[in-house]
Design goal:
This protein has about 140 residues and is α+β, with helices and mostly antiparallel strands. The protein has three helices and five strands. It has a single domain, classed as HIT-like (HIT family, subunit A). The protein has a five-stranded antiparallel β-sheet with strand order 1-2-3-5-4, covered by helices on one side. The longest helix is centred in the middle third of the chain and has 22 residues. The model has no long low-confidence stretch (mean pLDDT about 95).
């Protein structure tokens, strides 16, 4: 895997404002925040996308995300927030090391802005797709 800015932060080559750390996870403030309290959560394991991450590292992030969200809400006074995680350049990933953004949403013009272009799921195609996914997962 290519050396990323997050690799450099984990090694201590680049300073960061640490919010949380354990054996598998590191969380720190985003230096280009969308809102006050915008925090990045990364695994110490180097994996470019979520599907490449080990179950152990994924579980560790899953355990800490709710705790971080509660802390960010309490400290910022913001009740609403987004969790964002991108995989690959077409999905807007800029740093190719798995990372989650916790982005407080204090008002309509601060925080994450998104456009959701939904479509309709054809019931027949949905059934086929769900069956194929279950099979791929061994179930």
């Amino acid at each position: 895997m290519a050396d990323t800015i997050f690799s450099k932060i984990l090694r201590g080559d680049i300073p960061s404002h640490k919010v949380y750390e354990d054996a598998l996870v590191y969380a720190f403030l985003d230096i280009g925040p969308l809102s006050f309290g915008h925090t990045l959560v990364i695994p110490k394991e180097e994996a470019a996308t979520l599907d490449q991450l080990s179950d152990e590292s994924a579980a560790a992030i899953g355990r800490v995300l709710p705790r971080l969200c509660r802390a960010i809400k309490a400290v910022t006074g913001t009740e609403q927030f987004n969790i964002l995680q991108n995989n690959g350049p077409m999905a807007h990933q800029a740093v190719f090391h798995v990372h989650f953004h916790i982005i407080p949403k204090p008002s309509g013009d601060q925080g994450l802005g998104i456009e959701w272009r939904s479509t309709k799921l054809d019931p027949s195609e949905g059934g086929k797709l769900a069956a194929a996914l279950r099979k791929e997962m061994g179930g």
